[in-house]
Write a structure and sequence with these properties.
- The complex is a heterodimer of chains A (407) and B (274).
- Chain A has 407 residues and is α/β, with parallel strands linked by helices.
- Chain A has 15 helices and 14 strands.
- Chain B has a single domain, classed as TIM Barrel.
- In chain B, helix 5 packs across helix 6 and helix 6 packs parallel to helix 7.
- Classes of the chains: A alpha/beta (407), B alpha/beta (274).
- Chains A and B meet through helix 1, helix 8 and strand 11 of A and helix 3, helix 5 and strand 8 of B.
């Protein structure tokens, strides 16, 4: 099989001007992968800077509430910057150091990957530019604030739908201009080879830990593992710990306002996506019959994307990963229940995984365990979540704050 | 496999090389003038009627090749002006079918011009590679420019294109090594599109020593005609390129001209260039 392909998906569809840049990146990545000291250094950085290993929390109250499977939560929310994104950016950061480049660029949707990249750039002393759809700049203002305070330049992207896919296009336009000095820190397991494979490698740290932890705590493999899927990096990360085992892997996509409304971002579940090639890779894209990408919707900006990892498209096609979708309303209900019963606050993205787990746990046996990958924490998204809840006292607070600034 | 309309030419090294339709036509034209002209437009922007008027003026004023861009929602390799043109065209509802029908019409009416389709790979892929190439051949398109399809991923596309006598245009770039240029040239047909600089479409570049050296490297790597564009806007720009490359490409300049001054200024602009 050709390099960078997973079944029929993936590939390296890059403009000729980036050919040499990709050859260099592949060489650096393969050298790092063959060098065990690189992974050792990576583990040290993640332990020392990002609180790894993250716990696998036994959700005692949720387990009792549903009365079925034993529920465990993998706590990626406890990473530096509050999400699994740190795993990828620190790994790529170490690679950038090896390549001797001094400038990093990134795309961001919800802003998590942008903030994570900005912290990495600050830590390693790189210049950092983050491309963000103008729509997302408005929706995710607190993350813009932090990126700028961390020393990154945030560039609002005004093309297309002004969301994540447009930010990716703009990051590529930067890269074709400044490829000599710059590395593009792609945030997920999508894009041209070697990104899907490389980002999956850095994220495999989640699955490696979870596998050890569930055996320690539960004494055997879990029956099922749940993860939300936007691009798919947290899902690939945790799934890699269980691919060779008799464990059912469940990816939960953004069902938005419902699969039948057209307002969602569900590629594998539902019938609106089709095979396509853009943004450097071949996968299932939400597109029309001409091949034009269509607008997506999700309550969770991090899942609001037209494509899915080629690795997951392949695992889905082969039946190794089952895909489900959670609607915006279901997501808020699952978030509320998780907060009230366990005192943890999952991000809206992660809450999608909780939805599906909650649907299935009651029908499972108490000697079975499930793992929910909590890819990020929700409290940093207070503006988004408060808006999603349409919380009246929060609105009053914002109005009074705004009035204060006007004086 | 049948090579439609393929001629054999002797190379400088004395080998026999196959030359496709488009290249043969360009060679003919080069016997009559020192440098050829290729222009670009985005189908449906600002409208197909305006496209028609622009093409008519180009055709009547000595343009040799026109690349017609089928709009795409994710034009990754284009700069702001062409990106906006793609979006505006799509928002008016221009489809791939519209593009084919329009192309068929102008190819019939302006047989003196070589028409190429420029687009992104997903358009071709969704239509079906073979079906797309077959229909393009049937209506008289001479070649394709697909910037996000490198030769390694485009094996089938290149093979089918060549079977139909079409030119799957390949790229040289300032970051290409000499070895890579030779590799790409061996696969290409029609002409080689030399990307003049790093970055996206639509920015002006000086014809400095770096560019001259780059064009010399391009020349050394292939015997295919070379096309280059770098914000050309005057006869002097084109004169500077004469003898270095075979074809000058006017990209963003005509879109800007039509935006600012209207389609009826295209004829005088084309005349001014030659």
């Amino acid at each position: 099989m050709k390099k960078g392909y997973f079944g029929q998906w993936g590939g390296m569809f890059v403009p000729e001007i980036l050919h040499e840049t990709f050859m260099q990146l592949i060489e650096a990545y393969e050298a790092a992968r063959a060098d065990s000291t690189f992974w050792q250094e990576y583990l040290e950085v993640m332990a020392n800077y990002s609180a790894r290993p993250t716990p696998l929390t036994y959700a005692h109250n949720l387990t009792k509430h549903f009365g079925g499977a034993q529920i465990y939560i993998k706590r990626e929310d406890l990473n530096q910057t509050g999400a699994h994104k740190a795993n990828n950016v620190m790994g790529q950061g170490l690679l950038v150091k090896r390549m001797g480049k001094k400038r990093v660029i990134a795309e961001t949707g919800a802003g998590q990957h942008g903030v994570a990249t900005a912290t990495m750039a600050a830590r390693f002393g790189f210049e950092c530019v983050v491309y963000m759809g103008e729509e997302d700049v408005i929706r995710q203002r607190p993350n813009v604030f932090w990126m700028e305070k961390l020393g990154a330049k945030v560039v609002p992207v005004r093309d297309g739908a002004r969301t994540l896919k447009d930010a990716i296009n703009e990051a590529f336009r930067d890269w074709v201009t400044l490829m000599d000095s710059t590395h593009y820190v792609l945030g997920t397991v999508c894009g041209p080879h070697p990104f899907p494979e490389m980002v999956a490698w850095f994220q495999s740290i989640i699955g490696q830990e979870a596998r050890r932890q569930i055996i320690d705590q539960h004494g055997k493999m879990p029956a099922r593992v749940y993860a939300c899927v936007g691009g798919g990096s947290n899902a690939i990360g945790v799934f890699q710990g269980f691919l060779d085992e008799d464990v059912e892997l469940v990816g939960v996509e953004a069902g938005g306002k419902g699969l039948d409304t057209g307002q969602h971002a569900s590629r594998m579940k539902g019938d609106r996506a089709a095979p396509g090639v853009t943004q450097g890779y071949k996968t299932m894209f939400l597109q029309n019959k001409d091949g034009q990408m269509i607008d997506t919707h999700s309550i969770a900006a991090g899942l609001d994307y037209v494509g899915i990892s080629p690795i997951l498209a392949d695992l889905g096609e082969k039946g190794r990963v089952r895909f489900e979708a959670a609607t915006d309303t279901e997501v808020l209900d699952a978030l509320t229940l998780t907060m009230r019963t366990e005192g943890v606050i999952p991000a809206l993205e992660s809450s999608h995984a909780f939805v599906q787990a909650f649907k299935e746990a009651p029908n499972m046996s108490p000697d079975e365990a499930i793992i929910i990958n909590m890819s990020g924490r929700g409290d940093k998204d207070i503006f988004t979540i408060a808006k999603a809840y349409d919380d009246p006292s929060w609105k009053e607070f914002i109005i009074s704050q705004a009035d204060g600034f006007r004086k | 496999m049948v090579n439609v309309g393929v001629n054999k030419i002797a190379t400088q090294a004395g080998n026999i090389r196959l030359m496709n339709n488009l290249e043969a036509d360009l060679r003919d034209r080069l016997n009559k003038k020192p440098i050829l002209l290729m222009t670009h437009l985005v189908l449906g922007y600002p409208s197909l009627d305006t496209n028609y008027e622009v093409i008519r003026q180009m055709a009547e004023n000595g343009v040799d090749c026109i690349e017609m861009q089928i709009p795409f929602s994710e034009p990754m390799a284009d700069g702001p002006i062409i990106v906006a043109a793609n979006q505006k065209s799509l928002s008016k509802g221009i489809t791939v079918e519209d593009s084919f029908q329009f192309a068929e019409r102008v190819i019939k009416e302006f047989p003196q011009v070589n028409f190429l389709f420029m687009t992104y790979y997903n358009i071709v892929f969704r239509y079906g590679e073979e079906r797309f190439i077959k229909r393009s051949t049937d209506i008289g398109i001479k070649g394709f420019i697909v910037p996000d399809l490198p030769p390694e991923e485009g094996e089938t596309y290149i093979r089918i294109s060549k079977e139909h006598g079409m030119a799957p245009i390949q790229f040289f770039t300032p970051t290409s090594s000499d070895e890579r240029m030779r590799e790409v040239a061996a696969i290409g047909g029609g002409f080689i599109y030399c990307v003049a600089r790093r970055g996206v479409t639509g920015t002006k570049l000086e014809l400095d020593t770096d560019l001259v050296q780059y064009l010399q490297r391009c020349r050394a790597a292939t015997e295919l005609p070379l096309a280059v564009g770098f914000g050309i806007s005057s006869r002097e720009d084109i004169q500077m390129l004469t003898g270095k490359v075979e074809m000058a490409v006017i990209g963003t300049a005509t879109i800007r001209l039509v935006d600012e001054k209207g389609a009826d200024k295209v004829a005088s602009f084309m005349k001014k260039l030659q």
